[in-house]
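User: My collaborator sent over this chain with a note saying "see what the structure looks like." That's all I know about it. Can you take a look?
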Amino acid sequence: MGIKGAAKTSRKKKIEELNITDFKLLPSAKPPLFHGYTVRKTVTDHLWRKKIRPLILEQQGKKCSICGWTPENDTEIRHLHLHEIEEYDFLNKICNLIDIQLICKKCHSFQHIIRTELVSTKEQWEDLMQHFIKVNECSPEIVDDFDVIIAKALQSEGYKRKFLELSSLDEIIELGQKPVRFTIDPHIPYAQELIKQVEKKGLLYESKS
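Assistant: Without extra context I'll predict from the sequence alone. Here is the result:
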């Protein structure tokens, strides 16, 4: 076995052996097929920022639901973000908004880990690694293999496998030309207003069954 082959085998073994089930904070990434498409970008800024955000802040206690960080003053509240929890139907190119989570800026960075890696300075990345260690109460050495953590976390989401379930290249190309459509869980605050605005844009998916 060559050097590259041995390295690949070693990496695969690390991924298989790594246990991340008890981690509160894990890296995530939106599937490329859905990049740039969110309910938030589809509805008005007034509905999202002036109605939904204040209610989420009130409902979720003005603290990060992952690490528990709480702003010390009104100025710091801007570091609490609304994170859209989504599920994806790859075969029909549907993004299902199932919840909205209140999380801090640092925890949010891990929910878009591919972009975060690209845009972070060395100092910013090191700060995020310290946050990861603190939240998960894990050994500092684990971040030496953070690429393995990313691989393991994304593997558990199964997006690549689901995408490969598309039967042919022609099917993938055809799907890429279609718009992303949305569904919205009725338990989300202001769900009916969200649904009306998404429907007005012609992007609401309604099951025929």
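A starting point for your reply to your collaborator: The radius of gyration is 19 Å.
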